[in-house]
Every structure is written in C-alpha cells, then in structure tokens.
Amino acid sequence: MHTEFLMGNEAIALGALAAGVNVVAGYPGTPSTEVLETVARRRSQDVYVEWSINEKAAMEVAAGAAYSGARALVTCKQVGLNVASDPLMSLEYIGVKGGLVVMVADDPGPISSQTEQDTRTFAQFSKLPCFDPSSVAEAYEMVQDAFELSERLGTPVFFRATTRVDHGYESIQVADEEEWLHNDPEGFVRDPSRWVIFPRLSVVNHAKIEARNAQLSDELSDYRRNFVLPETDGAPRKGIATHGINYAYVRENLGEDDHVRVLRVATPHPFPERLAVEFLQDLDEVLCVEELDPVLERALTYVCGKHDLPVRIRGKLTGDIAPSGENTVESVGAAIDAFLGVDRQELPAPAMPTLPVRPPVLCAGCPHRASFYAVKKAMKGRKTIYCGDIGCYTLGNAAPLDMVDTCLCMGAGINIAQGVFHTEPDTSCFAFVGDSTFFASGITGTINAFYNQADMTLVVLDNSTTAMTGHQPHPGTGRTMMGEVVQKVSIEAILRAIGLTVVETVDPLDLELAVQTVRRVADEPGVKAIIFKSPCVVLARPQAHSHVDGERCVGCQRCVRELGCPALVPTDGKVVIDESLCSGCTLCEQVCPFGAIGGGRRIDMELPQAGGRA
User: Fold this and answer.
1) pLDDT for residue 38
2) How do beta strands 574-577 and 568-571 pair?
3) Where in the chain is the domain with CATH 3.40.50.970?
4) Is the pLDDT of residue 612 over 50?
C-alpha cells in the first residue's frame, strides 16, 4: 500500500484496477471522463480499455466481456446512461457471469449537463443495486465492493458518484500494482437458455430479481458503509438521513452539542430497510438531506407507513430542502439549523469581491466560429432554422453569432431539422453536428433523413477531436485509447455510402469559399452535406498572430460585433488583438472592410477538392 493525492475519478479507476477489472469501455462526458483515462494511463498490459462509439456500444462491449467471466467497467455521465439504458434494461434480466459495474457520474447543478437526473432513481426503475460514495477514499474502496457484489449476484451494479466526489481530491491509501487482484476470465460458455432473452426467460428472471432485491435489502442493512451515528445515544428525538457528498456536508455542520441521530445510506437501492427501522425507533422527526430526487425521503416515508412508526419525514417534499440544484455546506447548514431550531450566531463571512461575468464562449480561433459565420452570411435574408447539438459548438447560440435555434441531446438536431421541414417545407433547415457526435449518434439521423426524403443541409463541424470533454480520440482520428494507430473512418465516405450525392468538404477559415459553398449546397434538393474541416485550435499551434494597424483601423468594430472572438479587444474606440489568445486564424482579417488587420497565418490543411468523391 502507498499514499497518493487523487481526484475522485482517479481513485475510482485505481479501485477498479485493484478489483481486477479486465475490460473498461465508456464514452467521454463530464464529470466521468477521467475514470477511463486514468485506467488507460495506469493499467497493466492485460487490461483492455476503449472509448466506445457511444454509451450503448460501451454497455454491450462490457456485457460481452462479463458474459465471458471478465470483470468489466462502463463509464458515462447521467445523460449517457439514457443511451445505454436499452441494453442495460435487458441485461438486468439476463445477468452476467463476471462482475459488471456501471459507473455513472451524476451532475447536480447541473454544472456541465442538460439535466439533473438522479441515477438512484434509475436504479429503482431498473431494479439494480446502487452504490453511492461520500468521499474520494470511500469511492476507492466502494467500487471494489461493487465488483464483488456484482460477481456474487450475477447482476450489473450501479456505482453512482456526483461531481463533488468525482472531481474532489484526497490523500488516500491505495494498493500497489502487485497487490491488485488478478482475474482470469473463464471464457464464454454456450448456453442459449441463459444468454438468449425470450419472454419466458424474462418472466422467470423477473421473479428472481424481485426476490433477490428483497433479500439484498436485508443484507445491505449490515453493509459496513450503511450506518447510524452515534452508535450509543441518549435517546435523541430528531434524526438526519443523508447520502453521498451530503454526508460530508452534514458532518461538517453538526456540533458536539447537537443531539441528533444520523443515518448514512451508501446503498440507496435496494434500500437498507431493517437498518432504517432501527434508526427511526423513538424519533419524532427526520430531515432527509439529499441532492436531486427525494429518494431517501420517499423510502423512509414508506418504511414509517409499513412499520406503523409515528415519525414525521421532512425534506424536499416538505420544502425543508431545495427541490432541485446542488446542495452546499452552507445550504445544508441552514437547513439543519432550522430543523434543530438553533441559531449558531456565527460571525458573518467577510465580503467577497464581485467576480467578473464570464459567459462561456468559443475559444479564440475556434474553427466553429468561422463555420457558423459562413452559414449565417450565406443564408442572410432567407427563412432558415439552425438545429444545434451537444458539444463546443452549442456555444454558437451566443451573441453575436446567434446560430443555434435548438439543442436537445446528442444527435437530435439532425432529426429535429427533418421534423421542421415536414411541417414547414418553405424553411431552409440546417443541422450542425460535430465529428465525434456524428459517429456517436448522427449517422442514424442522416439515414432517416435520406430514406424519408427530407430536404435539409447537414453541416459536420470536423475539428478532428472530441474537444468539449478533453480531446479524446474517436473513429475519425485514426488512433484508439489503447494507443493503436488505425485507419481513420471517413465521414465523407459514410455520407456517400448512405446515398448523399452532394458532399462538400471545405476549410471554414477560407471565408469566401466557405460562404460560396454554403450558398451552392443549400440550393441543392434533398439531403446534402457540408463538412467544415479545420483542427481544434487547442491542437493546432499558431503560425503567426494577427495584429491591427492602428492607422488603418477606423473604429467600426465590425470584427467584434460580428465575430465575438475573445482575442478582439475594443480599446480607446478602436480594436487591438490580444496575442496571448490569438491563433492567427485570419478570420477577422477577412471580415475587416478596411484591411486594417493582417499578419495572421493559419495552419495549412489538405482537403479533398470541393464536390470530389471521398
């Protein structure tokens, strides 16, 4: 054993490695991404790891490994679980042979997500066991418990952490590599009666699952990470039930003189009912301190009714805890003080300076800015809808670009554009999708558009990486997470294979050519595509920075008004360029009507000829 200062996601990864994980598959999504990346960095040679095409693929790869007796880990964020839910819901009925842990990173706030969905509730819906760690150290230990339970029961198991655990840091004890468990998979054993799902099998296994969960509820009442504090008490009349990072918030706010009993729930499903009954004995009321859904509050209300316990359960449903959003140490402290009827009379915190407003913005030199601007300029004056997607390019909705009219979930923009066309045929429908998202969930929408005779323009924003989540590889990059160099999957070839006859690839930073291409392609009938290909500015080193000639600049600030590039700084009625941000992309040089900006040099790109067959 040795000590390391680790991020929560790093601890989860090392815990999985210590548990003998054989296969890890996932799709990048904040706040889960670092788990798989840490496995890839710290793994032994016999551990396989991949960024899958999407979460559904990751779940199915892991299922195949677990069918073969391997210990497998799936990583995703809470919205990614939606994509993986199709195989997962059936996999629960089939079961597994090796351990299969589904690590889902929930995002209260939400800080970097579309939704605040709660995997604890999904665990109840899918009838799967769920682990909910409270700290980095506990996450390291608990993921090993999850593998043990999964393998023992032959079922997938959720490991649900939230952003504050995923991205928190702690010095913890971890096993040396030679101490890691070595799991030698037996291999797949043919047994259609077990591995082929049919209604009869589902009926039989459903009954077994319900019986298992009832038994597991009792077993988990003795799980060491479900507990009641204090172990010996002076008959308090009030209690607090909590979970996850909120347990740390509760402990931080409770003083030595607070006469209160605490229930910490590490396994929200199956709920440790027997332990809960012991906790509720002789209490008058309980405050449930939890984030997102009132999972504990509902479970304790049910237990009180079932066991005729006259305890008032309070929490989100009673207005004592905020019904949505992320809890904090301060908000939990205020709720506890109100519940206990105390006024701690703490000294007011020193006034903090007002922080500047920093709205999210596309990076200086981002090729997506040039792509959006070219489409906006080409389609000016025409009735057009711009359907966006999930990625850096969602920021195209901000002024001054204002080029994202819809954004729902990954891949949805392509199908939404079709729905608008079938309702309003006189609308020019555009759908923007990134290269990674195209592979993950855009191909089926494009096939649907072609098959159902939609009239729309698909714009693939190809910056040769998965930029928003940290530049992970995808099929178009030509490399895998195992470090292998492989043949790139061509987006152009895929589109032509579907049947599209108009597929044009252009560098968006060549503004005049980009605008001409959009005008020409948009007027073609049916489904057509433009691939704006230019590398993410984070991956491309500037060749030379642009600069403003103060004598020629007349202060019109057209570059600022139309592009919104953070490197363009209005100063003394004119504009200067912050060279620490400028990438030399030259877009502002092409927009300036007075030729006052020059000197930039953008990266050279080798592109297929416009209209050429891929």
Assistant:
1) 97
2) antiparallel
3) 2-219, 367-533
4) no
Q: Above pLDDT 90, what percent of the chain?
A: 84
DSSP code string of 546-566: -EE-TTT--S--HHHHHH--T
Average pLDDT taken over every residue of the chain: 93
Q: Please report which residue ranges of 154-228 form alpha helices under DSSP H.
A: 163-166, 192-195, 199-220
Question: Taking 80 as the threshold, does the pLDDT of residue 602 lie above it?
Answer: no
Instruction: Pull the structure tokens for residue 58.
Output: 């990751």
Question: Contacts from 196-205 at CB under 8 Å and sequence distance 24+?
Answer: 197/90, 197/93, 197/94, 201/93, 201/94, 202/93, 205/93, 205/94, 205/95
Contact 462, 491 (CB under 8 A): yes
Domain 367-533 has CATH 3.40.50.970: yes
Q: Give the angle subtended at the CA of 610 by the CAs of 605 and 612, to the nearest 5°.
A: 110
CA distances from 238 to 259, 313, 592 (A): 8, 10, 69
Residue with structure tokens 């030595």?
256
Q: Which residues lie below 8 Å from residue 378, measured CB to CB, with a gap of 6+? A: 514, 515, 516, 518, 519, 522
Place of tokens 């899958």: 52
Whole-angstrom CA distances from 114 to 3, 76, 109, 405 are 36, 14, 10, 16
**Right CATH for 2-219 from 3.90.1150.10, 3.50.50.60, 3.40.50.970, 1.20.1560.10:** 3.40.50.970
DSSP line for 519-553: HHHHTSSSEEEEEEE---TTTS--SB--EE-TTT-
- What sign does the dihedral 468-441-436-528 (CA atoms) show? negative
CATH of domain 227-340: 3.40.50.920
Q: Give residue 299's identity as a one-letter amino acid code.
A: A
- For residues 381 and 360, give the distance between their C-alpha atoms in angstroms, rounded to a whole number: 28
Q: 3-state secondary structure string, 310-352?
A: CCEEECCCCCCCCCCCCCCHHHHHHHHHHHHCCCCCCCCCCCC
Cα–Cα dist 339/248, whole Å: 18
Give the contacts of 328 (CB within 8 A, at least 6 positions apart): 249
Overall residue count recorded for the chain in this entry: 614
Q: How far apart are CA 527 and CA 503, in angstroms?
A: 9
Give the pLDDT confidence of 436-453 residue by residue, as tens digits.
Answer: 999 999 999 999 999 999
Torsion angle in degrees (nearest 10) through CA of 19, 25, 29, 30: 10
Q: What does the pLDDT read at residue 352? A: 81
Does residue 209 carry a pLDDT above 50? Answer: yes
Judge whether residue 585 has pLDDT over 90.
yes
